[in-house]
Prior knowledge:
The protein is mainly beta. About 5% of the residues lie in helices and about 20% in strands. The protein is built from one helix and eleven strands.
Amino acid sequence: QNACNGCTALTDVILKEGITTIDGYAFYKCSSLTDITVPNSVTDINWYAFSECSKLANITLSNNLESIDRYAFTKCVELSEITIPSTLTYIGASAFSGCSKLNTMTILATTPPKLAASNSIPSTISTIYIPAGTANAYKAASNWSSYSSKFVELS
């Protein structure tokens, strides 16, 4: 926890395969960090892990990621799109709040991930790509209905 908290000059990070969790506040306020690739061994991104990384524009998430906790990417103001892997089962409250440029989200999970709150995804989202044939499941899932007009099924 707090591994690089506030490292304002940190621009690049290479996370090694084998870690399973990115702890809370690990990269909190790393205001120069622009890109991050989360290794496939990571299953959990904890609270505030990348919160307020104001230049973070490119995130590649683990193909085995199961959980994005509350405020994990809040105020990543340069982030414009993100792809959520098929393994994700949980998105915490305000996970992407304050991501003012985030307008496209691709969710590869056929079962809608649990949204802890309706504010887990910012209002700036214009399109949420979801797997073909899953629109009704997403519309029926708790806290997803407010985004139903933004769903586009992938072919």
